[in-house]
Design goal:
Helix content is about 25%, strand content about 20%. The chain has an eight-stranded mixed sheet, with helices on both faces. Strands 4-5 form a two-stranded antiparallel ribbon. It is an alpha/beta fold.
Length: about 300
């Protein structure tokens, strides 16, 4: 069984009272930026869920390391790298929690940013393990990056499920920034290829990845209660690709809306483009918050790999 200490009742009745309508965007909040009286610092998310966000942010950080021999102290199944797209990541196995973790690195080299991140044209959803007969379209560069490692990822997971039948849980956890977009696409591939596997998706600073049909497909196939799209205060990458180009975020966003990092400062947002989430902040692109998520320095902490 997939290990989680978060009660299903919480997902059905989240404490932040998201049933209330959003406040008027004409009101300009001053620092510290609180999303509204229904989502003030006295609420937030459960401590257990916050700990999960911290945990999987560390996996996302580990994907940046050239070598990650023991991701979060667990078994490294394989690392993968594609030279052309600079797509890098790993598959790890946690025998205690009985889960497999797949983590993708975000952009680090200029070549990766040019070849992948700027390919804004929307392309049909086609690739290893991905569902067919859908009208979903997504960022050409992100799709290209996934295709470069998708077959290998699926083969490794298939072999792990055969060798370790007790492992029924799979966190297609994670990536940061570009890695979050790749992880999202890979989650669809895994859900379509292994329909009986438990699956949760954690991303951090994920940019808009596809069109409304793609966002709806992600929400339907993975389940909004299984998606944890972490965003942070004034971090601009999630909104860098504008909706006017045909893009839309998928649910479910968990926005840390002020400092310091704490469960009471994270809001479970409503839908993919909640006007009281990170979409309420004008995009400032890649900025200082880019490299720290839920207390975890991204890419600069080698201890997450031992």
């Amino acid at each position: 069984m997939l290990h989680t200490s978060i009660s299903n009742d919480w997902y059905s009745n989240p404490p932040d009272d998201t049933s209330r309508p959003p406040c008027s965007l004409k009101f300009q909040w001053k620092w510290p930026h609180f999303p509204g009286t229904a989502h003030d610092p006295d609420n937030g998310i459960p401590e257990e869920l916050y700990s999960e966000l911290v945990r999987y942010a560390k996996y996302a950080s580990g994907a940046y390391q050239v070598l990650c021999p023991r991701p979060m102290g667990n078994t490294l199944v394989t690392q993968f790298t594609d030279i052309i797209t600079s797509t890098q990541g790993f598959v790890a196995r946690d025998d205690t929690r009985q889960e497999l973790v797949v983590s993708f690195r975000g952009s680090r080299e200029i070549a990766s940013a040019i070849i992948v991140d700027t390919s804004l044209v929307l392309s049909p959803l086609r690739g290893p393990g991905l569902p067919k007969n859908t009208d979903a379209h997504l960022h050409t560069g992100f799709l290209y990056a996934f295709r470069s490692v998708g077959d290998r990822m699926l083969n490794v997971l298939r072999e792990q499920f055969e060798r370790f039948p007790r492992i029924h849980g799979l966190i297609l956890h994670t990536g940061h920034s570009l890695g979050g977009a790749i992880a999202c696409i890979a989650a669809l591939s895994i859900r379509n290829s292994f329909p009986d596997a438990a699956l949760r998706l954690f991303t951090f600073g994920q940019p808009r990845t596809g069109d409304p049909s793609f966002a709806e497909l992600v929400e339907t196939m993975i389940g909004m209660d299984n998606i944890f799209r972490g965003t942070l205060v004034f971090y601009g990458v999630p909104t860098m690709i504008p909706t006017r180009l045909g893009y839309r975020h998928h649910a479910t966003e968990y926005w840390q809306f002020t400092e310091p990092p704490a469960p009471r400062h994270v809001r479970r947002c409503v839908g993919g483009e909640d006007p009281e989430g990170s979409a309420s902040i004008p995009s400032t692109g890649i900025n200082l918050p880019h490299m720290v998520y839920f207390e975890q320095p991204i890419a600069s902490d080698p201890t997450v790999c031992i």
